TrEMBL record:
Keywords: ATP-binding, Nucleotide-binding, Phosphoprotein, Transcription, Transcription regulation. This is Sigma-54-dependent Fis family transcriptional regulator. The keyword Transmembrane does not apply. GO terms for biological process: phosphorelay signal transduction system; regulation of DNA-templated transcription. The lineage of its organism: Bacteria, Pseudomonadati, Acidobacteriota, Candidatus Polarisedimenticolia, Candidatus Polarisedimenticolales.
Length: 465
């Protein structure tokens, strides 16, 4: 049931007559005289529906609709005076639910309000579904169930609808670029370009023209006009990767452009205005990079309006299982391979390993393992040497059970023997279960048991394993 309605109109008389009408019908009404005020009221009073005028000084009804659609999705009715029907249609395209002609006819308003009840329920359902997905560890293309990743998801959701600059920090391979893409995909700019520039991969002499473009003849070799990334990202998102690797003088120029939202192509006279949302990333610690004189402090403050730090994978081991499965499935989909799942012993090692190359290293390892396993279950022997490691793991890894949500029987790698077993029985059992744990890999089993490979071969022969 709709309860609270926000009425937005710059004319006091319109606002008041609507308020009286709605109050007679039993609604709880709040009102605002400008779009800006309406944005404040929305966050303060949480109305369940909005009725807004289109033509207002300052933020127009259209702009209000556009902003609310992402920041606060509720049903909106736009009210249009004569000659603004086209604008009303545009508002509907941008997400308004419906429109009413002014002066408002009570009968029509009543019908629309009933329709809004349904829309309101639908929108609430959408919000609930998105939240549920997030709880299950999927946020756009990002996966993660750990508390730090869920907090990253919430931060993305919060900042995506705005035009604020965002600085993403995090070690190499943690998923910074994917975070940037997700930000773009959840923003009102998502139908426009996402343009990525890797400042570390392009020679300093070419980077300026890559970003701002150049006119023909701007420098030796500039045989044609080139449109830069800034222009290409107009109305979209520009992703400046490895920002701290950018030349100091170019950092200064970038700062100026960000402040003025205007620039010239190299060798050009025309002043170009671009509406660009900038997202930057660095795998350095930004504060340290500033101290070292790599990252201009003023540019840092301009970009760091909102900061998202993606934690290293070793600090969110709960994500490893989900990511490994996700990467295996994604690889299978891409290549037409099949995956039969990951053996618990392999998973335990993957969770144990610190992944200095973070998600990217995990992704590479899983893709290789998927290929090597050729449709069978991924076992230890399919993993890189580094991941398998050479120190034995203490069974039953209760901490892993806690950390990762693995079922205890999955990490139970211990051996139980009845009283009365001989030493030989014990040895045989121990070797058998260790070999099971390593997926039949004798070298690995020998390492775990602290014997030579030769001894291992002899025992295997002796017990006929
Ligand atoms: N949480 C995640 N969910 C799904 N895929 C992920 C996640 N994190 C990273 N990836 C994948 O891992 C790979 C590396 O991620 P990405 O390129 O975004 O890292 P990065 O932080 O930008 O690394 P670098 O600093 O080296 O540029 C990509 O293929 C990406 O799709
Ligand atoms: Mg990257």
């Amino acid at each position: 049931m709709l309860d609270k309605i926000l009425v937005v109109d710059d004319e006091t008389s319109c606002r008041d007559s609507l308020r009286r009408l709605l109050e007679v019908w039993g609604y709880n009404v709040v009102s605002a005289g400008t779009g800006e005020k309406a944005m404040e009221m929305v966050h303060e009073h949480h109305p369940e529906a909005i009725l807004t005028d289109l033509v207002m000084p300052g933020m127009s009804g259209i702009e209000l609709v556009e902003k609310l659609r992402y920041e606060y999705p509720v049903p909106i009715i736009v009210m249009s005076g004569q000659g603004t029907i086209e604008t009303a249609v545009e508002a509907i395209k941008l997400g308004a639910t419906d429109f009413l002609e002014k002066p408002v006819e009570p009968g029509k308003l009543k019908i629309l309000l009933e329709k809004m009840e349904e829309t309101s329920e639908l929108l609430a359902e959408n919000r609930r579904l998105r939240g549920e997905l997030r709880d299950r560890g999927a946020f756009g293309m990002l996966r993660g169930v750990s508390a730090p990743m869920k907090s990253v998801f919430l931060q993305i959701e919060k900042v995506a609808p705005s035009t604020l600059s965002v600085l993403i920090a995090g070690e190499s391979g943690t998923g910074k670029e994917l975070v940037a893409r997700t930000l773009h995909d959840l923003s009102p700019r998502r139908r426009q370009e996402f343009v990525a520039v890797n400042c570390a991969a392009i020679p300093a002499t070419l980077l300026e023209s890559e970003i701002f473009g150049h006119e023909r003849g701007a420098f030796t070799g500039a045989t044609n006009r080139k449109i830069g990334c800034f222009e290409m990202a107009h109305r979209g998102t520009l992703f400046l990767d490895e920002i701290a690797e950018m030349d100091e003088s170019l950092q200064a120029k970038l700062l100026r452009v960000l402040q003025e939202q205007k620039f010239r192509r190299l060798g050009g006279r025309e002043v170009i205005t671009a509406d660009v949302r900038v997202v930057a990333a660095t795998n350095r610690d930004p504060k340290k990079a500033i101290e070292e004189g790599r990252f201009r402090e003023d540019l840092y403050y301009r970009l760091n309006v909102f900061n998202i730090t993606v934690p290293p994978l070793r600090n969110r081991k709960e994500d490893i299982r989900m990511l490994a499965t996700h990467f295996a499935e994604e690889y299978a989909r891409k290549t037409g391979a099949t995956v039969a799942g990951i053996d618990p012993a392999a998973l335990v090692r993957m969770i144990h390993y610190p992944w200095p190359g973070n998600a990217r290293e995990l992704k590479n390892a899983v893709e290789r393992a998927t290929l090597l396993s050729a449709g069978a279950t991924i076992t230890l022997e399919h993993l890189p040497e580094d991941v398998i490691g050479d120190e034995p793991l203490d069974a039953p890894h209760l901490k892993l059970v806690e950390d990762t949500g693995l079922a205890p029987e999955e990490v139970k790698t211990g051996v139980t023997l009845p009283i009365g077993s001989s030493m030989e029985d014990a040895e045989r059992s121990l070797i058998t279960s260790t070999l099971e744990h390593t997926g039949g890999n004798k070298t690995q089993a020998a390492k775990i048991l602290g014997v030579s490979l030769k001894t291992m071969h002899n025992k295997v022969k002796k017990y006929g394993l």
